[in-house]
Amino acid sequence: MGVSNKNFPRKGAKAQRQTSGSRRSAFASLRLCAGNLFLILLVFTYPAFAQKTDSHTTRKVPSMSAAAKALLEEAAGVVCTQAKLDPRSSIAIDEMQARPSLPVQSPEAREGAERAQRLLPLAKELVIKSLRQLSTEYGFHKSARFDSRLRQAVRRVNAVKRVRPDMESRDNASVFLSRPHVITFGTIFLAGLRSDEAMISVLSHELMHIADGDNDSLRPLVAAVGNKASDLTGLDIHGQRGEEVTCDLVGAMAVRTYIADTPGYESIARRLARSIQHNCVELDEGDEDHLSPRNTIRALLALHPVIVRELINDREERPSR
Questions:
Q1: DSSP per position, 66-116
Q2: For 5-62, how does the pLDDT look when each residue is reduced to its tens digit (9 = 90+)?
Q3: Backbone phi and psi for residue 7, each to the nearest 5 degrees, phi listed first
Q4: Strand partners, 164
Q5: What is the pTM of this model?
Q6: Residue 181 DSSP SS3
Q7: Sheet harboring 173-176: ordered strands across?
Q8: Cβ neighbours of residue 108 under 8 Å, at least 6 residues apart?
Q9: Among 159, 161, 150, residue whose Cα is nearest residue 116
């Protein structure tokens, strides 16, 4: 991209505060004229249409069955139910944005900063493992050129040393690629991520931005993830949106590995939910570069059906000793 910074979860709080009427919705902008009705029919009949065309000029488009979509929505419901029940759940990002600024020396911000710094070395290991796993899953492990890019990405991740709390950043985390050794966290965000799982998820998101670098060296992988997410959900998840979803996917994968490596007495569903429950918002707004928070949940679950099964099958809280 060649930009100077990359942010999570929004390019700025302003994007989340837009009124619903100020953002173009994919459906609100449709005009019910004959031409657009034809386009709508073409979209919904595309899989059948594609099968009739020359197989050499079209790619097989993945899709979700009605049953898979129902399971996805059920799993998303588990995530947001846990957000209400879990005493260590993350605060939703729209609620964070409504809060007053928090000084760096406040107890909540200091606790969050200490957690982030403590977990940074582990998050780096988990991100590298997740990137290698994605490289294999999407077939890039056979490419010598991509392998070289991946090695460079790993070096960039390993070079990150510090988390910097920042009052002005409020509810955002960001990396300035001119200072790639530091992840900047808004103090409200530090205070709102109240579990190790949530913090690992966001650290991993930012580390993925750093891995990609200022020359988008992981663009083939990002594009592949975005294309698959678009095909599965019917949402437009290309360009910067594809990068943001890939960062979120790496975060969710890192948390899942962390949970497997640190078994405990809380349910897997509760711990998995912490990685994405900051997206359980009431004001569900997106922008050109980001899906809305709740659509982010849907895209992640569509990309990782194993997490869907684990959220549904292990939702009951285990008794404590």
A1: HHHHHHHHHHHHHHHHHHHH-TTPPPPHHHHHTSPP--TTSHHHHHHHHHH
A2: 555 544 333 333 222 222 223 323 333 333 443 333 344 444 443 333 333 334 556 6
A3: -120, 160
A4: 184
A5: 0.81
A6: coil
A7: 5-8, 173-176, 182-186, 162-166
A8: 102, 187, 190, 191
A9: 161
